[in-house]
């Protein structure tokens, strides 16, 4: 169901204000677009990259900087910090975590629920972004960044903030997933 019982109750409790319902529906539509894209791409074995402009929602998260030398460093830092968050007893949000690249510093950002917000929580602001969807193995990292940089140059766009990288389908979702079928989202803030 597109509108939940909670949405309907909140609508009537608010006196007919539909802003929250519209926001939730937009978020669900974006998740469905991404899910469609993921399943549509599963029929190819080649590296595939597409992009579009999207609004990304605000995200409450905890974060930790890490040294990024290659993809393996990113994966290890992500797994280690996710374990740390679970050990801390944080209430994790039901969305993927992010890698955030800001100039020379990279962070793992793990989205959390707003039930008990720890002191080290931050908010990734809502952004309008040029989002690249990449279907393929992480070994293609250099090709991917080359394509992103080439496209940004062709479109005369420079990032207006930290770049968010999200593993929509990656090694954290199960070892049985063929690495050639990983699906990653690179969000470049443009406003």
Describe the structure concisely.
This protein has 191 residues and is of the alpha+beta class.
Please tell me about this protein's structure:
Helix content is 33%, strand content 29%. A hairpin with a 2-residue loop joins strand 3 and strand 4 (105-111). With 191 residues, the protein is an alpha+beta fold. It has 4 helices and 8 strands; from the N terminus they run ααββαββββαββ. It has 2 domains: 1-41; 44-189, Alpha-Beta Barrel (Multidrug-efflux Transporter 1 Regulator Bmrr, Chain A), CATH 3.20.80.10. The relative contact order is 0.17. The mean pLDDT is 81. The protein is globular. Strands 1-6-8-7-3-4-2-5 form an 8-stranded antiparallel beta sheet, with helices on one face.
Task: Record the SSE blueprint.
Blueprint: H1 5-13, H2 19-41, E1 48-56, E2 59-66, H3 71-87, E3 98-102, E4 105-111, E5 121-124, E6 127-135, H4 141-154, E7 163-169, E8 183-189
Antiparallel strand pairs: 1-6, 2-4, 2-5, 3-4, 3-7, 6-8, 7-8
């Amino acid at each position: 169901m597109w509108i939940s019982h909670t949405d309907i109750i909140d609508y009537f409790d608010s006196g007919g204000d539909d802003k929250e319902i519209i926001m939730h529906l937009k978020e669900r539509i974006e998740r469905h677009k991404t899910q469609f894209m993921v399943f549509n791409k599963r029929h190819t074995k080649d590296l595939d990259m597409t992009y579009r402009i999207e609004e990304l929602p605000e995200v409450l998260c905890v974060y930790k900087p890490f040294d990024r030398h290659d993809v393996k460093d990113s994966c290890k830092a992500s797994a280690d910090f996710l374990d740390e968050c679970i050990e801390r007893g944080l209430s994790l949000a039901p969305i993927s975590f992010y890698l955030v690249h800001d100039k020379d510093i990279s962070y793992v950002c793990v989205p959390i629920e707003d039930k008990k917000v720890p002191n080290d929580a931050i908010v990734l602001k809502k952004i309008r972004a040029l989002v690249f969807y990449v279907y393929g193995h992480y070994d293609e990292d250099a090709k991917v960044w080359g394509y992103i940089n080439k496209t940004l140059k062709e479109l005369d766009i420079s990032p207006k903030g930290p770049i968010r990288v999200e593993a929509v389908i990656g090694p954290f979702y199960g070892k049985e997933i063929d690495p050639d079928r990983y699906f990653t989202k690179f969000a470049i803030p443009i406003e």
